[in-house]
Write a structure and sequence with these properties.
alpha+beta; 4-stranded antiparallel beta sheet; disordered C terminus
C-alpha cells in the first residue's frame, strides 16, 4: 500500500516547488466584454499562447504554474494590449480608455513606473508641436521658434535616453532589462545599431547579452550594418535581416 502512496507524494513535492502567477484584471471598456484575452510569451523566436480567459462583466482572470519569472504580453486576438511580468504574487491589471496599468508585484510596479515616466516624456515631446503653433500665432519668427524648440526637443531626448539607459542597466540580470530593450528596438523597421544601443551593449552583463532576443537582435544589427557600409547607402532596406516582431514591447501610451 505504501508503494502506491509514493507517486502522489512526489507529485505534491514537485507542485510545492513551483511558483504560480495570479492575474486579476478589470476593464471599463465595454467593447472588451465577451472577448477572449490571451497571455503570450516568446518561445523559439515566436509568440506562443500560454493562457487564455474570457472577459465577463469587465472582469478577467489568469492563473497558472510558473517555473521562472518571465515577460509576457496581454493580447486580444492578434492585438497586443500591454506587457505583463509573470511573477509570484497577486498581479492587478486595470484597463480603461485613458491608460493601461499593471501592479501589485515588485517587477510589474517597477516596469510601469518606468512606462509612466517614459510616457510623460513622450507627451512633452508631442506638446512641442502645439507649442509651435501657439508661437506662430503670437507672431514669433519661425527661425526663432525652430531654434528654441530644437533645444527643448534635444533636452527631452536626452532625458529619455538617460531614463532608458539607467533602467536597463539596473535590470541587466532580470527580465526587465531585456524586456525594455525589446521596447526600444521594436520601433525600428529592422535591427540597427544606434549610439544608445551601442552604449547599452558596451556596459551589458554576460547574462543580458545571452538573452535570446538581445543576442539575436545585436548580431542581426551588426550584420545589417556591415551590409549597409559595404553598399554605402540605405538602398538595402528591403534585403536586410530582421528579427521577430515584438508587439508586447510597445510602450502603452496614455
Amino acid at each position: 500500500m505504501r508503494k502506491f502512496l509514493v507517486l502522489p507524494v512526489i507529485i505534491a513535492l514537485f507542485a510545492s516547488c513551483a511558483s504560480s502567477y495570479n492575474v486579476e484584471g478589470s476593464s471599463s471598456i465595454s467593447a472588451l466584454d465577451g472577448s477572449k484575452l490571451y497571455l503570450k510569451a516568446i518561445k523559439n523566436n515566436e509568440f506562443k499562447n500560454i493562457d487564455s480567459c474570457d472577459v465577463v462583466h469587465g472582469e478577467f482572470h489568469f492563473t497558472g504554474l510558473l517555473d521562472t519569472v518571465r515577460m509576457a504580453s496581454l493580447y486580444m486576438d492578434d492585438e497586443s494590449i500591454m506587457p505583463i511580468v509573470l511573477e509570484k504574487g497577486e498581479i492587478k491589471v486595470s484597463i480603461d480608455n485613458v491608460r493601461q496599468m499593471v501592479g501589485g508585484t515588485p517587477m510589474n510596479d517597477s516596469l510601469y513606473q518606468f512606462i509612466d515616466k517614459h510616457n510623460q516624456l513622450t507627451s512633452r515631446m508631442n506638446e512641442l508641436s502645439h507649442k509651435q503653433s501657439q508661437m506662430l500665432l503670437e507672431g514669433i519668427e519661425e527661425e526663432v521658434i525652430n531654434r528654441q524648440l530644437s533645444i527643448e526637443a534635444a533636452r527631452i531626448a536626452q532625458e529619455e535616453d538617460q531614463l532608458v539607459m539607467k533602467f536597463i542597466e539596473a535590470n541587466f540580470d532580470n527580465v526587465l532589462g531585456p524586456g525594455v530593450f525589446m521596447m526600444i528596438t521594436s520601433q525600428y523597421r529592422y535591427p540597427i545599431l544606434t549610439p544608445q544601443i551601442e552604449d547599452i551593449m558596451s556596459k551589458a552583463t554576460k547574462k543580458f547579452k545571452e538573452d535570446p532576443y538581445v543576442k539575436d537582435y545585436y548580431q542581426t544589427a551588426q550584420e545589417n550594418e556591415k551590409r549597409m557600409n559595404g553598399l554605402g547607402d540605405q538602398s538595402i532596406l528591403e534585403n536586410v535581416d530582421t528579427v521577430p516582431s515584438a508587439p508586447l514591447t510597445n510602450i502603452p501610451q496614455k
